[in-house]
Amino acid sequence: DVKVTQSSRYLVKRTGEKVFLECVQDMDHENMFWYRQDPGLGLRLIYFSYDVKMKEKGDIPEGYSVSREKKERFSLILESASTNQTSMYLCASSWGLSGQTQYFGPGTRLLVL
Amino acid sequence: AQSVTQLDSHVSVSEGTPVLLRCNYSSSYSPSLFWYVQHPNKGLQLLLKYTSAATLVKGINGFEAEFKKSETSFHLTKPSAHMSDAAEYFCVVSDNNYNNNDMRFGAGTRLTVKP
């Protein structure tokens, strides 16, 4: 079974702090994704990566950056957390970019005070 | 460009009655379509996937969905709801445009199951 793990289930941070969210997958997938989920808005893509050190902006990249130094690990970075980044963050991985099942981690619920 | 619309933001059924969650899509190509389920405070789990084989797709936990090209629909059904089906459900479309990340998620339908 594919397993995608996220470093934290719950995080509480203060405005202006630098926040790291880490995601690890164990299936040698080429592609990894970061989404945020807010009530009524569904999932919105922040960034994705199709290879080590490669990244592409998604629909809402502002205020976020990412890092993929190893194939199995994809990090989301909030350089200076703001209250409007309070959300559920979901990581996913897949074999291909299009038409392929994405496998999701359990999510990180981030509260920025 | 592809898009997906989940026609109901919230559906409420009684335990033992049928479930219908509606999804319409638009796609320029021959699409792949997915349904995912998300239980409270969990990640998304794949329920089923359509990839141009049989139009009636069977998934886990007794769910199934029918691809209807003429209606551009991919509705999710289950004959008899169980309390454990209470969750949020997402319909997803992909244009199978292999060089692009083209997965598009619907806004979700929250299913409530009453005893």
Give me a quick take on this structure.
Chain A has no helices and 11 strands.
SSE layout:
The complex is a heterodimer of chains A (113) and B (115).
Chain A: E1 4-6, E2 10-13, E3 19-25, E4 31-38, E5 42-51, E6 54-57, E7 65-70, E8 73-78, E9 87-94, E10 103-104, E11 108-112
Parallel strand pairs in A: 2-11
Antiparallel strand pairs in A: 1-3, 3-8, 4-5, 4-9, 5-6, 7-8, 9-10, 9-11
Chain B: E1 3-6, E2 10-14, E3 19-21, E4 23-26, E5 32-38, E6 44-50, E7 56-58, E8 64-68, E9 73-78, E10 87-94, E11 104-105, E12 109-114
Parallel strand pairs in B: 2-12
Antiparallel strand pairs in B: 1-4, 3-9, 5-6, 5-10, 7-8, 8-9, 10-11, 10-12
Describe the structure.
- The complex is a heterodimer of chains A (113) and B (115).
- Chain A has no helices and eleven strands.
- Chain A is mostly beta strands and 113 residues long.
- In chain A, the strands form two sheets. In chain A, strands 2, 4, 5, 6, 9, 10 and 11 form a seven-stranded mixed beta sheet that branches. In chain A, strands 1-3-8-7 form a four-stranded antiparallel beta sheet, with no helix packed on it.
- In chain A, 0% of the residues lie in helices and 56% in strands.
- With 115 residues, chain B is mainly beta.
- Helices cover 0% and strands 52% of the residues of chain B.
- Chain B is built from no helices and twelve strands.
- Chain B has strands at residues 3-6, 10-14, 19-21, 23-26, 32-38, 44-50, 56-58, 64-68, 73-78, 87-94, 104-105, 109-114.
- The relative contact order of chain B is 0.33.
- The chains are: A mainly beta (113), B mainly beta (115).
- Runs of chain B in which pLDDT lies below 50 for 5 or more consecutive residues are none
Distance between the termini of chain A: 37 Å
Radius of gyration of chain B: 14 Å
**What spatial form of chain B do the alpha-carbon principal axes imply?**
globular
Number of strands of chain A: 11
In what range is the share of β-strand residues of chain B?
over 45%
Going by helix content, strand content and strand pairing, the class of chain B is mainly beta
Q: N-to-C SSE series of chain A?
A: EEEEEEEEEEE
Our count of helices of chain B gives: 0
Largest β-sheet summary of chain A: 7 strands, mixed
Quickly give the structural class of chain A: mainly beta
Q: Could you state the order of secondary-structure elements of chain B as H and E?
A: EEEEEEEEEEEE
Percentage of residues in strands of chain A? over 45%
The number of E-state strands of chain B comes to 12
Helix content range of the residues of chain B, please?
Answer: under 10%
Distance between the termini of chain B: 41 Å
**Largest sheet features of chain B:** 6 strands, mixed
| Global shape of chain A | globular
The helix fraction of chain A, in percent, is: under 10%
> Could you tell me the mean pLDDT of chain B?
92
The largest inter-chain interface, given as chain pair and residues per side, is: A-B, 28 and 27 residues
